[in-house]
Amino acid sequence: MSLEPNKIPFWFRFERSGNMDEFQEACRKLELDPLIIEDMLNEQHLPKVEIYEHLVFLIARIFPNKDNLAESSMVCLILGERFVLSYEPGFAFYNSLLNPQKIPERASKNPESLFLLLFDWVVDSYLPLSTCLRRQADMMEEEALDQPEKDFSVRFQQLYKIIGNCRRAVSILHEDFMRLTPFNTPLISKSSQHILNDIQDHLRGSVQALETNASLLISTRGLYQDAVRQRQSEIIQHLTFITSIFIPLSFVTGVFGMNFANLPLLESPYGYLIVLIVMVLIAVWMWAFFKRRLKE
Amino acid sequence: MSLEPNKIPFWFRFERSGNMDEFQEACRKLELDPLIIEDMLNEQHLPKVEIYEHLVFLIARIFPNKDNLAESSMVCLILGERFVLSYEPGFAFYNSLLNPQKIPERASKNPESLFLLLFDWVVDSYLPLSTCLRRQADMMEEEALDQPEKDFSVRFQQLYKIIGNCRRAVSILHEDFMRLTPFNTPLISKSSQHILNDIQDHLRGSVQALETNASLLISTRGLYQDAVRQRQSEIIQHLTFITSIFIPLSFVTGVFGMNFANLPLLESPYGYLIVLIVMVLIAVWMWAFFKRRLKE
Amino acid sequence: MSLEPNKIPFWFRFERSGNMDEFQEACRKLELDPLIIEDMLNEQHLPKVEIYEHLVFLIARIFPNKDNLAESSMVCLILGERFVLSYEPGFAFYNSLLNPQKIPERASKNPESLFLLLFDWVVDSYLPLSTCLRRQADMMEEEALDQPEKDFSVRFQQLYKIIGNCRRAVSILHEDFMRLTPFNTPLISKSSQHILNDIQDHLRGSVQALETNASLLISTRGLYQDAVRQRQSEIIQHLTFITSIFIPLSFVTGVFGMNFANLPLLESPYGYLIVLIVMVLIAVWMWAFFKRRLKE
Amino acid sequence: MSLEPNKIPFWFRFERSGNMDEFQEACRKLELDPLIIEDMLNEQHLPKVEIYEHLVFLIARIFPNKDNLAESSMVCLILGERFVLSYEPGFAFYNSLLNPQKIPERASKNPESLFLLLFDWVVDSYLPLSTCLRRQADMMEEEALDQPEKDFSVRFQQLYKIIGNCRRAVSILHEDFMRLTPFNTPLISKSSQHILNDIQDHLRGSVQALETNASLLISTRGLYQDAVRQRQSEIIQHLTFITSIFIPLSFVTGVFGMNFANLPLLESPYGYLIVLIVMVLIAVWMWAFFKRRLKE
Amino acid sequence: MSLEPNKIPFWFRFERSGNMDEFQEACRKLELDPLIIEDMLNEQHLPKVEIYEHLVFLIARIFPNKDNLAESSMVCLILGERFVLSYEPGFAFYNSLLNPQKIPERASKNPESLFLLLFDWVVDSYLPLSTCLRRQADMMEEEALDQPEKDFSVRFQQLYKIIGNCRRAVSILHEDFMRLTPFNTPLISKSSQHILNDIQDHLRGSVQALETNASLLISTRGLYQDAVRQRQSEIIQHLTFITSIFIPLSFVTGVFGMNFANLPLLESPYGYLIVLIVMVLIAVWMWAFFKRRLKE
């Protein structure tokens, strides 16, 4: 089912619909291989580029929802000799990237241009994606350096998985693409190869950006762990400091709290003053001892 | 020994049996190389694909028991010019994947189709496997983020080893397969190459999924370690908190527990009140000191 | 807009300007592909080298600001049959590396020499960069081994990211360069190939140096973590030492502080002396016990 | 010096002997290159396979001593046009693997068969080796999960180094072998290529098994570290638990141990009972507080 | 400036000298490319092997000072059609490896032999180097397993950097060498290719040995960290042990140190004995509790 009348006669556009008959019939008419159809109907299919004799078949994944990048959506593009077929199991591509108004004149002239345009739109959506993920990774980094919240680990893991998914989606497409370059198919004319180069360039840039993100995130985890360790170290210092000062003092009070009949100083009028002064000296000494050990 | 009369005349199917005579005789009749037979009888053999002049020889490992994925089982498939031979040292393939009823008409027509069908069934069993492992890895991740049990490490290690085994089994097969593609053997006709492509595609998908699982599991271990560290840090905080408050207070009680004859305040009617107030102030101060250090 | 009259007639030099008309017109006259122009106008573009039929197109990143190496700047160089075009979105290349006075006679004779000269200047700027980063990494290492400050992690992360950026910029250029060597383009004569070799050599040296830096920095992080762990270990030793000595002594004072009517020694004239001696013995024993445990 | 009369006339077998004259003379007669002889006399030589015009030269390392796998021993095999030469600097190969009685008829017919047989024996010795190491790695894993002894680290390191050595020995041989496959030398007939394939298969299996061992061992180290961390965490919990309960109680006793003249409750007949009840309440509260913090 | 009259007429040998005129003139006479000269004059140049039409140009690094392996020194060798040129910016090669007396007859006959001999000497110096580093790495390992000193980290880092430098120097040379094998230059005759093979073999052995060293060192760092962690764990055990025993006992003394008028047992003649027995029981119980927790 196409959502609006196709103004381009050679473009078969399909989005999810309750009734797949039209799609199935189009496939039959265009003589698509059943294995290709099976791949298109598998919503979890990995990205790939395949070149057949009379066909270029491409599956890509897009991330339409900026607020939930964990969700990805499949887009299938097929370039035939006299047609382009696009299929997706939802409306993500249609809603977020496809803009019929923006399809330039030349793309509506021949299938090759249309196919490259659609492919370009898919690939161009990866760069803002990696920019968005970069911003989130940067925020995590700042938090790790400053004051990590209690649920840092949980959010970290979420972002880590999202970046991993995106990276996989983009880099598999890029690899497949690289393997096939230069495309030796009569479907794509020599004069369009530079558009393919450009697309590949953008793919490569996105892969690079996503890998930079991933490695930034990994080093952020290290920062977080350092921060936790550092804080623990400081708490232990605090504990040691308090204990070092007061445990010896308490011992002194314990000594003069013993019930010996003839403990010295007890009866002396300045006895307690002397003891208090001694305690202050012990405290200072302990302080110094502690600080010196810390410095070592 | 075949368990039921083979309805397909060119299919030699063998499962484990007490008496290997029939198998040995079939091998002799089909003129299989002794080294191939030796490989088939080695139950621990690694997966491989080999292309001889008149033979395609394939060993794969399947994981028939969903409740114990540590157990794997070997399946051997041989495609000859006029026959297909399948062999396994147990009944795992027969019981879990092989369904003679579902063998389509065309596969019972020629060996090539049958071979590809059986191979496809083997490869198709890897995807549910990785889905199942994914579910277990997800559960471990949730536990690591929430409340890891005491035996987390033990279960983690088990799952880690299972995923490792599966990944190895699938990726070795995939590598061998890649190396040989496109299959230049007269045994597989040009028109069937796209089925091989499809099988390879599924293999690749399974390898990807299993690798994703493995990397998810590794980052789960990191989460678990963070959680242990975090909890330890909190216990030390608790210890430090209690100690910071009460050690100084105990010192104060120690001071007024000393038996000096003329310690001030002791005889004063409000002495103990004053001291108690001082102690409350110290406690508050220590609390604040501790909190401030924690924030730093 | 060119900042000074170009003395070399075939050199089209452009730096950022408020009005891009001149640049656009030059591009039109030189018949540059719109995709190349688009790449040039994307300031964040990754380095690359591309060889077209009548064009060598090169994007590199330079790091003009020695005090803020996190900032990088793009330089584009194009070698055509009868021209060289250089473009940058700022004045970084012009200010830091380009020195028209130093352009030798031969470079002003033909485009090829000029292009190679400019490229060489870009590549030559990477070595001092890596030397500068090396110095910073060495300083971090020394600090980690000696007395890491509190903000060590923050500064470490900054340097780590800078080195990562530089390494990426240089190694992508190097990879592209390697892939294209030897340059099979009529634009670069056979006799100039050795200059390309030399440039490649320098690129490789810079990549090596930056990778050495990165691995040094990573091992520095290990040193820092060891130092933090070591210090924590020492603080805990201190805590344990103080506690081991005084807790048992306090217990002894507690015993003789109990109000039992007939506790022995209390009335004896040397009672407290005996107890003090016992306490000294306990302290010595505890000291020895602690030291022995540490040695084990 | 050969230990027993060679029954196979074309087989030159040498083990270590005090007098190398016979060996040197054989080398001269067989016209071996001095560099090959030099390699053979270097007992620490890495494994390698080299194919010369009239020679296949192979160095492998075997691990003859099952109780001390840290010890490896060199074996050299040379296949010439009309001879096989085997050399080892000890008797390890002769004692552990070489069994003249088991040399089949066909191997004593031509050098090629003998060479392949000997090579096969060397490679076949790697699989039991990896099985033996696997058993040891499994035992370490169990210990790490259960109750690691104090010298765990030392034994771990030993096993780790042994597995590393074995892996290196086997994988270098495998790599060299792979690089040369298929062997384009007239010395090995086409009909024997499948034996080479089989040998390569076994080598590959051994490499895989040893790598699995190594990665198992590495994850075992992780288990061990987790166990140490876990135990430390529990000890700190214990410490915190004891301290949380008794420090506040000691403070209460300290309060009523102060010598104030008019401290309340002291003279009351149920005073001490009230205080004891209060202390029990504090203990219960502290217990609950501690448990709650642990759960958080 | 050559240090002694060259007995081999085609050998141009240069070591550092205050006056470079002779060197410059020789370069001019031999018609060396200015870029090659520039490379030779850069003392920090990475190792490389380059094959020109009439020239083989080689830069290697040697480590002449066994007591300070952090210091490396450059050696340049050039093989021309009728000459060999050796250059170094110091006397390291001359002093440590070059021994004119040991130059065999045949090497003084033609440039090719001399070049290969010198190259062989350079490469042969790498094996003792890696043996020496191995010994140091073994010593660090023993120390880590036994009793690491306080400056372990510092010395570790030094050795780690030295091994890294050596490894880089050797492996870059090896890589370049591999890339060019087999040398297709008329300068090296077919009959000398086996000498090149031998050199390559030795290079490979050195690379392997240095990589083994590096990985040994990395696992040594793990051992050291385990040891630090283990020791910290033991100190905490000690602390917990002491605290577990004495804190409850001190509480008991505190109870009977309270000044309640009618605390039971105080007036009883066996009161203190009963309390002491109770305290012993508590101590034993605490001991058992602690040990049980440790075992869990």
Give structural notes:
The structure is a homopentamer of 296-residue chains. The first copy, chain A, has 296 residues and is an alpha+beta fold. Chain A folds into 2 domains: 2-229, 2-Layer Sandwich (Beta Polymerase, domain 2); 258-296. The first copy, chain A, has helices at residues 21-29, 34-41, 92-96, 111-124, 126-145, 152-180, 193-257, 271-295, and strands at residues 11-14, 48-51, 55-62, 73-80, 84-87. The first copy, chain A, has a 5-stranded mixed β-sheet with strand order 1-5-4-3-2, with helices on one face. In chain A, a hairpin with a 3-residue loop joins strand 4 (73-80) and strand 5 (84-87). In chain A, helix 4 runs parallel beside helix 7 (193-257), helix 6 (152-180) packs antiparallel against helix 7 (193-257) and helix 7 (193-257) runs antiparallel to helix 8. The radius of gyration of chain A is 35 Å and the shape is rod-shaped. In chain A, 40% of the residues are buried. Chains in contact: A-B, A-C, B-D, C-E, D-E. At the B-D interface, helix 2, helix 6, helix 7 and helix 8 of B face helix 7 and helix 8 of D.
